[in-house]
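User:
Hi there, any thoughts?
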Amino acid sequence: MRCGREGSWTFVAPALVTLLLLDAVGYAQAKNFEDVRCKCICPPYRNITGHIYNRNVSQKDCNCLHVVEPMPVPGHDVEAYCLLCECKYEERSSNTIKVTIIIYLSVVGALLLYMLFLLLVDPLIRKHDAYTQPLHNEEDSEEMRPPVDSAAARANTVLERVEGAQQRWKKQVQEQRKTVFDRHKMLS
């Protein structure tokens, strides 16, 4: 269990350091100019095509008069044109987005490292089983593993249960192949 705790701390420590650095960068800078904007969607008006205007302005200045530049209509039509435009103030937190992406990539990286660990350790854990037949063998031998007496039985760990399920699955596949090959021989 001690190895598992150390492994989790090696993952958590860099993640915390990264979060602290991102937080410090966020406080050092003022609000990023891309974090707030006013977006005005103006539909077609007379001979003018519709257009979307984006501008970094404060929430109180989020209206057609402050965002739409250059104004596509002459002075006396400005008010009618602005009434058609729909302006929305949008705000996002780029630091939250960065932290979410870092956490996501850290989890994916940890899973990849775990997969590599299992690929390297799996051959060492597995033992070659002399009682299983190769899958391409078509002999009709009903002999499977000899029964193991209860005194020599090992502890029932998760890995052993998985291996047992895998052996049962291999046995079923062998029986299905045998049946298919027997039917194929009968039809030939």
